[in-house]
Design brief:
By secondary structure, this protein is an alpha/beta fold. It has two domains: about 270 residues, FAD/NAD(P)-binding domain; about 160 residues, Elongation Factor Tu (Ef-tu), domain 3 (Beta Barrel), CATH 2.40.30. Helix content is about 30%, strand content about 15%. The chain is built from twelve helices and 16 strands. The strands form four sheets. The protein has a six-stranded antiparallel sheet with strand order 10-11-12-13-9-14. A five-stranded parallel sheet has the order 6-2-1-7-16, with helices on one face. Strand 1, helix 1 and strand 2 form a beta-alpha-beta unit. The protein is globular, with a radius of gyration of 22 Å.
Length: about 450
């Protein structure tokens, strides 16, 4: 029997993998017995931040790790593919359809039991093996128990969530549909149906310099909901609140989430001074999220400032942005590349609490942790994927990075071993990295079955 604490992306994936390998699994999920600050449902694998799984082509590191996961029978990837919504070259999902698909698959698996209960301490040998996959919002009691086990203070940073608007409240006369660098663009008439088109999966709110200047000034004086010390607060660099970016300089947003590059306005034939992109959040197309607009501004100020964006003057917010604590262990001091702890071979971590960042990386760690927990339960040796794979590179980085400067990481080509004789062309280089990774993963998978 494998015990898994937490029913998020990592916990659900770990349970699926272990069960598919013939081992009985019990998931211990505290919702709805105990709620969190940001979850809205009791569904498994609920997405609380963006609805995007990021790039989906193998020439990108995150696209590569998704393909590796698909080849290993990932339930998260299967559900994400089924819940896909238009997002250009990225994989974005209807978060409700996605969570429902994962929940349905896990609950219907004959080898998986789901217990709705809070686990307040790291289990002893009576639960062996056990995977802790409680995510960034691990309860205070369990956090303290983990801290006592690993002998280290948890590192923590603040993560923020983007707002979502009701599609019918967007002024379609002021926006245009396009994907960055897309060949086909579409500028809808007021009241037009929001039908996705090839290379045009985003709604774009163009800004003039005057629009941007006014928006910027309103943003930097808006009142924060929880945190006022921008200099000392620790945020994850890959998910900075927009007001934190704004405080770094007037041009920061124009080179970040509001960059207009590759988004020519079909009505003017020119690039706007700045752009706010909206990504479809549901299959029905009735909700859109503001891309890269995670924020901690108080809701009243949030509505006032965001309604300064052209096309959102009368926006109705389905969900406001918010900030939450994100807690994780120092992987290099605690973990092995198999996601086992150095202290206890039968105790594994997975997901954001293990020291990775991102939906895909969380699920990927759960995939390997679940397979290795199953191996332990069957008396077999846990195995880490080859370092040449994205899965293996992520596991190696989390367990071998400099612990003194460690911060949760996304999968990147930079943490994968270089090619022996790389071509000069960047795209060819990326494709050769992907070909090597997938060949090595297939060989490893066959050898470990």
């Amino acid at each position: 029997m494998v015990h898994i604490i937490g029913g998020g992306l990592a916990g659900s994936e770990a349970a699926w993998q272990a069960a598919e390998l013939g081992v009985d699994v019990t998931i211990h999920e505290m919702r709805p017995v105990r709620a969190t600050a940001v979850h809205q449902t009791d569904g498994l694998a609920e997405l609380v931040c963006s609805n995007s799984f990021r790039a989906d082509k193998v020439d990108n590191a995150v696209g590569l790790i998704k393909e590796e996961m698909r080849r290993l029978g990932s339930i998260v990837m299967r559900s994400a593919d089924a819940a896909r919504v238009p997002a250009g070259a990225a994989l974005a999902v209807d978060r409700h359809v996605f969570s429902a698909a994962v929940t349905r698959a896990v609950q219907s698996h004959p080898r998986i039991r789901l217990w709705r209960e809070e686990v307040t301490a790291v289990p002893g040998p009576e639960w062996s093996p056990v995977i802790i996959a409680t995510g960034p919002l691990t309860s205070d009691a369990l956090s303290l128990s983990i801290q006592q086990l690993v002998g280290e203070e948890h590192l923590s940073f603040y993560d923020a969530i983007s707002p979502i608007v009701l599609a019918e409240s967007i002024d379609m006369s002021k926006v245009f549909r396009a994907s960055r660098w897309g060949r086909n663009v579409w500028s809808p008439e007021p009241g037009a149906a929001l039908e996705p088109s090839e290379d045009g999966d985003y709604l774009n709110c163009p800004m003039t310099k005057d629009d941007y200047d006014a928006f910027y000034q309103a943003l930097v004086i808006a009142e924060s909901a929880t945190i006022h010390d921008f200099d000392n607060t620790r945020f994850f660099e890959g998910c900075l609140p927009i007001e934190v970016m704004a405080h770094r300089g007037e041009g920061t947003l124009r080179f970040g989430p509001m960059k207009p590059v590759g988004l020519k306005d079909p009505r003017t034939g020119r690039l706007p001074y700045a752009v706010v992109q909206l990504r479809q959040d549901t299959l029905a197309g009735d909700h859109f999220s503001l891309v890269g607009f995670q924020t901690q501004i108080k809701w009243a100020d949030q509505a006032r400032v965001l309604r300064m964006i052209p096309g959102l003057e009368h926006a109705e917010f389905v969900r406001y942005g918010m900030v939450h604590r994100n807690t994780y262990i120092c992987g290099p001091k605690v973990l092995l590349p198999t996601w086992q702890t150095r202290q206890r071979a039968d105790l594994l971590f997975a997901g954001q609490v293990s020291g990775v960042e991102g939906y895909v990386e969380s699920a990927a760690s759960g995939l390997i942790a679940g397979r290795n927990a199953a191996a332990i339960a069957k008396g077999e040796s846990p195995q880490a994927p080859p370092r040449t794979t994205a899965l293996g590179a992520l596991a190696h980085y989390v367990s071998h990075a400099d612990p003194n400067t460690y911060q949760p990481t996304n999968i990147t080509h930079g943490i994968m071993p270089p090619l022996a004789n790389p071509p000069r062309d960047k795209m060819q280089k990326k494709m050769q990295i992907a070909e090597r990774a997938l060949a090595d993963l297939d060989a490893w998978s066959c050898a470990t079955i």
